[in-house]
Amino acid sequence: MVSSILYSFSQSLRTHPICIQRWNSAKRFLDTQHTTFFPIAKKKGFLELPIVPEDDLDEQFVRGHGPGGQATNKTSNCVVLKHVPSGIVVKCHQTRSLDQNRKIARTILQEKLDVYYKGINSEIVKQKEEQQWKKREKKKKAKDNLERKRQFKELLKES
User: 39 exposed, middle or buried (CB, 10 Å; 0-12, 13-18, 19+)?
Assistant: First the structure.
């Protein structure tokens, strides 16, 4: 029973071979600041992100910034992760907890590495483009509805 669970868990951790080519269109995702990008929590499927060994990381804890006053200025709970082989740096100060910031920083780094190595073929890039497409469609639909309402009001005024 335990061996079958371990086998299925190890099977789910497999990663596909990655192409080490940098795409210009994927560069914008690396340069922008990471906001809310946790597709694993909201989607049914699991993203296959690259596994990052701890030996490749430089981790620092620095003081955060922003609102919070003395509680923020006094504690060093902002996590700065640097992936040495690629040179990607991630800074995370989303919560007051150091452990949560460490976990969030690692997931952000995994997502950025996925975009860095896979480029346009990355699942994250595809999801981002799909979200932008849905947003455009929603705006278009709202604009069409407003136009139909305006035309209906003009028709009522004429008759």
Answer: middle
